[in-house]
Design brief:
Layout: E1 9-13, E2 21-26, H1 33-42, E3 48-53, H2 69-92, E4 100-105, H3 107-119, E5 124-128, E6 136-137, E7 152-153, E8 164-172, H4 178-190, E9 194-203, H5 209-219
Parallel strand pairs: 2-3, 2-4, 4-5, 5-8, 8-9
Antiparallel strand pairs: 1-3, 6-7
Amino acid sequence: MKYASPAPLSFGGAARDRARLGLVLVHGRGASASDILGLGEALALPDLALVAPDAPGRSWWPTSFLAPTAMMAPHVEAGLAAVDASISALEGGGLSRNKIALAGFSQGGCLALEYAARRGDLMAVFGLSAGLVGTADTAGDPSDDLYGFSPKVFDYPIDLSRMPALISVHEEDPHIPLARARESAEVFERLGATVTFQVAKGSGHGITEHDISELRRVLNT
């Protein structure tokens, strides 16, 4: 099933026609576009235009991102379309695609990483407490390292040479297995991206000060 209508967009930061850079922000489950825009505002970059899509029902998909491909595929496609619309809105204000970065948290981080791996051609991608969804199922058995789910195929025929990619996760995250986050970092390295993989100590599921510092560093480059 696909969403009946495109996800609405919310805007913040600098005016799109006067901004130096654009940032698409993708919220997590139970949150909203206005919530994740607060992350962009916290970066305190006055020349950064912000846009965030709103997921229907405050969720991009109804299950874990680790679920089988057949369950995930229609929801991922709808989410990718929402990111496409967000990028188009920034392009409509005069920003070229290579001046637009993509960031998301939790579900939104998974969607951001998946978009970058499938579509590419961005300034940077930031997956905060996130991992790749994958392109297909494998024949592998369910794994404790993947919270009882089976491994996925990560088949992305794309060149992300030198694109900065941040993937972060806690050592013990209730929603994002460390194994999947680490594998996602390895996939982006294979695709040519310049990867920063950050693992916060202990248990948790949230955006860290290290995440914000990395966002600010890359967007200030």
